Amino acid sequence: MDWRKIRFVNMINKVKIGARIYTITYIDNDHILKNNKNIYSYIDYDNCNIVIRNNVNDIFQEENLIHELLHAICEVANIDIIIKHTETEKIISLLTPFFHKFIIDNIDLLKLISDKTTRENEENDN
Fold this sequence. Notes:
By secondary structure, the protein is an alpha+beta fold. The protein has one domain (9-125): Orthogonal Bundle (Arc Repressor Mutant, subunit A), CATH 1.10.10. The chain has helices spanning 58-76, 85-105, 107-125; strands at 14-17, 20-27, 32-34, 37-39, 41-44, 49-53. Strands 1-2-6-5 form a 4-stranded mixed β-sheet, covered by helices on one side. A two-stranded antiparallel ribbon has the order 3-4. Helix 1 (58-76) crosses helix 2. The longest helix has 21 residues, at 85-105. The radius of gyration is 16 Å and the shape is globular. The model has no long low-confidence stretch (mean pLDDT 85).
């Protein structure tokens, strides 16, 4: 199986970042309005929920998921203590396509790391 050809959106329903487990919800709405702006995704930190619009192409959907995951990582790492939220948003927006490309280009490496971690966890459980 060529893992590079598999799109990862709609396959992921939960993700753990630090001690928090975020639920990922895919919605079919044509519009999500937040602060009177039409957006494609958002993160609800209080309820640990990431919402992604389902009616956009897979690549755009994946980038929106990565964008929100980077927000979650910044929140857990308390990045806003040292960088203003507006600056964090700019940095995340710049990094998102690079992280997406990294994941797609290195899916075999990520699968290898995942398999190794799974084996180590199984060994520790025994």
